[in-house]
Amino acid sequence: MDGTERDVQCVTGDNPIHRRKDDVLGRADMAHSFAEHVLSLDVTEGAVVGVLGPWGSGKTSFVNLARECLECNSVAVLDFNPWMYSGADQLVESFFVELSAQLRLRPELFEVGKELEDYGEIFSGMSWLPLVGPWIERGRAATKIFAKILQRRKKEGIYGRRAKVVKALGALDKPLTVVLDDIDRLTTPEIRDIFKLVRLTANFPNVIYILVFDRIRVEEALAEHRIPGRDYLEKILQVGFDLPAVPAHVLNKQILTAIDNALSTVVNTGPFDQNAWADIFMEIIRPLLQNMRDVRRYAAAIRGTVQELGGSVALADVLALEAIRVFLPDVFRELHGAVEGLTTPSGLYYRGDEDAPHLKEQVKRLMQAAESRADVVQALIQRLFPAGERHIGGSNYGEDWKNGWLRERRVAHEEVLRVYLERVIGEGLQALTDAEQAFPRMANREAFDSYLRSLDAERLQDVISSLEVYEEQFAPEHVVPGSVVLLNLLPELPERDQGMFNLDSRMVVGRVVYRLVRTLKEDNAIEEAIRQILPKLTTLSAKEQLITMVGYRDGAGHKLVSEVVVRELEDSWRAEVRATTADRLAKEKELLRILLLTKREAGPAEPALDIPDSPSVTLALLRSARSDVRSLALGSRAVRQSPRLAWDALIELYGSEDILRERINKLKATQSEDVNGVLELADKYLGGWRSSEFGDA
């Protein structure tokens, strides 16, 4: 393809085939045999043949294949579409006008066409005449035509005109074939009118009618006064050909081929689980696709959806949900209101044998909407929504499954399902998308660091948190470079309102680093990795966090290395803190924590901690001592935030409030910018004010 051409994907519409080469169901030979059988019929008084099959079974395609054989035998095939007309009068008029027009296009049949048109005039009213418009000339012309018709009716009568048609048709070397398709799509009165028309003209010589319809629909329309429609139908049809069902293996192949063709030019179809696909196909998709019309409808639907989603949802899940959307629209409508019931693991609401009743009610409504296809919807829940299984008697799935569902882009995770339903990628899924790009770079420190720093800083914490979903894929080669990059990024993460229940950035980074380190399993390997990581960390707080994580501190340590090693690492870290210059200390975001740990945990033989008398250090300490108390007012959902200082910790660090006051006054004298109001807050504390546990005192 050159640069001027475009790659255009053609989606097959719901159109019948016309040529043998397009026959994917292997019906061409059968259709030709049918045509030969039709030509062998005695048509001296005409014949009526039926091609019968349910909607979408390929009746029109079958007739088109038979047409090839008929036309090869020089048989004229005429088409009459009853959809174009309504009412018995218009139907009869139009039938003769349409057939005569098609015959007149063939020189050898011109006279037959003329006679047929003249015969049709006997039954016609005025509705077909060119009386549209107010023009007098047209009205005068129509009046003359009408007068001519009345004169001809009076002179020849119906039997005279019919005799001419019979004579013209009887002289033909080959019969005429008239195809009436889609009869079953008409209203009940229109179906009856069509069969009255056929009865009226069925005994013309050399005329074969091929009626195409769904037997059940037509029999219901023809039934009246306790007379079965089948009895009426048998009086009209000389031959009835029931189109055989498409073999299951053939239809399976056509569905899969249609899916492949529909998605062939989609650049990113999303992750595909081959193991899950077999069950999804056989239990959800296949039961809903009964014929080739269904296949074409389905193929036309899936391409646009998969293209629009851009790989953000697992392909097998999309294909299953698209089958529900196309063939079970009532169920699909309920799906929007059942998101929580389908995706909430048992960990949030589940307590013993009890569960939140509204979740079960959502799934119940979904099942009710399925009606006769409850088996398909039950399979949908079992295969796509494990968290909802417990509401239909299945297993319980806890919170620990969610990371896997999110990583695999399965609609079992609420965020992924909402992307499919709403076509809007939420923050969580966007973070996972970024994490997908970051994880392959984790073994390369420079590449990993460069990629993470290229992202929007405001969502970097979410991206780091999303790396947890790759925990099962963490390997030894990821430990050192990954930990170094993440811990060094920690001080640069923007401060954000964590709300009442969210994790802070220190914990988010710590969780990922812990999962990295523990993949090494052996104490010696972990110790070696820690000794490689520590020298590469740029802040004292990052080093302390790593040592604490592998150590034995209550509520924080995971005991990943020996106590002897931990004591050595802690001693070395405290020595580094004492030796750190004032300028470096002032850059530490968690300076109060660092200095308190150094002072509190120092051994008897260690030198005393000297707090540099530097305004920049004092300011850094005040900033790290500031926090917010969050509280809820009685009867209100609003969260109130009240600032406070860890005043007692500051006094403990300096040894007395007088020393602290002196350092703060020196800081104020430098006219430093009062970031976050820490100096104003410190003045309040120096004046005796204290905050309560739940807000301002």
Low-confidence stretches: 1-13, 125-143
Number of helices: 33
Strand content: 5-15%
Main beta sheet: 5 strands, parallel
Taking strands numbered 1, 2, ... along the chain, how are they ordered across the largest sheet?
2-3-4-1-5
Helix % is: 55-70%
Summing up helix and strand content along with how strands pair, one would put the structural category as: alpha/beta
Structure, explained:
The chain has 697 residues and is of the alpha/beta class. The strands form three sheets. It has a five-stranded parallel beta sheet with strand order 2-3-4-1-5, with helices on both faces. A two-stranded antiparallel sheet has the order 6-7. It has a two-stranded antiparallel sheet with strand order 8-9. Helix 7 (215-222) packs across helix 8 (229-236) and helix 12 packs across helix 13 (329-335). The longest helix has 35 residues, at 136-170. It starts with 27 loop residues before the first helix and ends with a strand. Mean pLDDT is 83; it is low at 1-13 and 125-143.
Outline:
By secondary structure, the chain is an alpha/beta fold. β6 and β7 form a beta hairpin. α9 (248-263) runs parallel beside α11 (292-309), α16 (357-370) crosses α17 (374-384) and α23 (476-489) runs parallel beside α25 (523-533).
